[in-house]
Write a structure and sequence with these properties.
Helices cover 75% and strands 0% of the residues. It is mainly alpha-helical and 115 residues long. The relative contact order is 0.17.
């Protein structure tokens, strides 16, 4: 049950990223954090969620995270009020991958503690 909940949460977080990417720039939520910090935090959280939900699939998750970040940036080329930036792609992909790695490390520490 917990694993299914993690999978649902990770998918909902990814859907949320898609939504805030395609809405007009003026309708996008603003946190008050710097632009790169906003991107880094949310993509790291999404990566962490996917890393926790899909155990043992790190290679596929890492590739998917990079492709997801790329597709989100490329989608913005089609939107009048948005812009695609290489810097955003790099920050987003790196943060998502870091989140995935963090989930793996934490899981390894927890498993080692209970052996």
């Amino acid at each position: 049950m917990f694993e299914k909940s993690l999978k649902l949460v990770s998918c909902l977080l990814a859907l949320g990223l898609v939504l805030v990417t395609v809405v007009p720039a003026n309708d996008r939520p603003v946190t008050g954090l710097g632009h790169d910090v906003e991107h880094f935090v949310i993509f790291a959280v999404v990566g962490l969620a996917f890393g926790a939900a899909y155990v043992g699939r790190q290679r596929a998750l890492l590739l998917s995270a990079i492709l997801f970040a790329l597709v989100l940036e490329l989608c913005q080329l089609l939107l009048a009020t948005r812009h695609a930036r290489l810097e955003d792609f790099v920050v987003d992909a790196a943060a998502a991958c870091l989140g995935i790695f963090t989930a793996r490390v934490v899981r390894g520490l927890v498993v080692a503690q209970y052996r």
